[in-house]
Amino acid sequence: MNNILNLNNQTIILASQSPRRQQLLRDMGLTFEVRTDKDIKETFPENLKNEDIAIFLSELKFNAYQKELTKNELLITADTIVCIDNIMLGKPKDKQNAIEMLERLSGKSHFVYTGFTVGNNTKKITNYDCSEVYFKKLTTNEIEWYIDTYKPFDKAGSYGVQEWIGYVGIEKIIGSFYNVMGLPTQKLFDTIKLFV
Q1: Are 122 and 73 in contact (CB under 8 A)?
Q2: Has this prediction a pTM greater than 0.70?
Q3: pLDDT band with cut points at 50, 70 and 90 for residue 1
Q4: Where does residue 134 rank: exposed (0-12), middle (13-18), buried (19+ CB within 10 A)?
Q5: Mean pLDDT value across residues 116-143
Q6: What is the pLDDT of residues 21-45, one digit of tens each?
Q7: Backbone angles phi, psi at 64, to 5 degrees
Q8: Which of 29, 31, 66, 172 is the most buried (most CB within 10 A)?
Q9: What is the pLDDT of residue 2?
Q10: For 147-176, what is the HEC assignment?
Q11: Mind telling me the catalytic residues?
Q12: In the beta sheet, which residues pair with residue 80?
């Protein structure tokens, strides 16, 4: 499939192992290559909060690859975090940690921030999006069944909005659904167009 955008022979590079991000880019009508050969330690200054964490981590990933880009390569990096009560929930360490995260999210609203960076070997643009997600009160059985069945250990906040828990547990989302999946597709598309 050809790109929906006329990228003037530029090749899009996605530096992400996330199958959700890869699927979203394909569904946006874009062809791309995946590059994940860097071992990037995702740490950030303790004083950062909310969107600033997602932005920092997205740029950290971008900076690791930028010097190696050719003039015809357009790189996309992203990072998604979940925040509740100003506490950041990353990827769970194990099953117990995943249970604790979902118990914390149960019956409350939380915020999902995705920072993303688009650029080439001379220029980059970073932006972010924020969505508010409302969970119903989840039972212990629902939480444990979801974790045992879907094993959401590669997902911030221990859940995937596109999975079973999203269908039965999420009451509403204010903002972009796709941002919660891992890429604010509309904002990303408009940013890529700035490089055409």
Answers
A1: no
A2: yes
A3: very low
A4: middle
A5: 97
A6: 999 999 999 999 999 988 888 888 8
A7: -65, -25
A8: 66
A9: 58
A10: HHHHCCCCCHHHCCCCCHHHHHHEEEEECC
A11: 79
A12: 114
